[in-house]
């Protein structure tokens, strides 16, 4: 559905203003639908992100500062998220022997199982996106979003 119809606004100052509003609206749309999926598993998007980061490094432990760097939501408190996941039995944490300030985290078997259960939900959500966008369009949109944020390779 067109943005103008969704938010009941006929005109924008210029295409860039519409782009910003469209990005915010679309991001909120993705978050709303993701929250709905994750709620069934009693996880927040930020907790899901931590589990996926840890699964990607499994079986190696990951320091909390690395989790923080890799989080999609840079405002998230990784230590608090890890503690909530630990209480659910989805991750384990340990102090690093030679640096007591460093805390390493690993995903547990239960955490991996939780992500496997959720794969079907994530796949369904992605299939819903692919019903509206072709693979070529998704690639183009990804490229344009990367370009909008500034391409690090071209800057450096």
From TrEMBL:
Pfam families: MarR_2. Residues 1-150 form the HTH marR-type domain. GO terms for biological process: response to stress. SMART domains: HTH_MARR. It comes from the Bacteria. One of its GO terms (molecular function) is DNA-binding transcription factor activity. PANTHER family: TRANSCRIPTIONAL REGULATOR, MARR FAMILY, TRANSCRIPTIONAL REPRESSOR MPRA. This is Transcriptional regulator, MarR family. It comes from Microscilla marina ATCC 23134.
């Amino acid at each position: 559905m067109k943005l103008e119809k969704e938010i009941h606004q006929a005109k924008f100052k210029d295409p860039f203003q519409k782009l910003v509003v469209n990005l915010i609206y679309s991001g909120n749309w993705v978050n709303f639908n993701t929250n709905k999926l994750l709620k069934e598993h009693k996880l927040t998007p930020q907790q899901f992100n931590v589990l996926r980061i840890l699964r990607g490094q499994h079986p190696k432990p990951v320091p909390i500062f690395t989790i923080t760097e890799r989080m999609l939501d840079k405002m998230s408190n990784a230590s608090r998220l890890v503690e909530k996941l630990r209480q659910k039995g989805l991750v384990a944490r340990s102090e690093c022997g030679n640096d007591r300030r460093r805390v390493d985290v690993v995903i547990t078997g239960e955490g991996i199982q939780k992500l496997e259960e959720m794969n079907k939900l994530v796949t369904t959500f992605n299939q819903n996106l692919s019903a509206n966008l072709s693979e070529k369009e998704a690639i183009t949109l990804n490229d344009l979003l990367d370009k909008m944020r500034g391409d690090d390779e071209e800057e450096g």
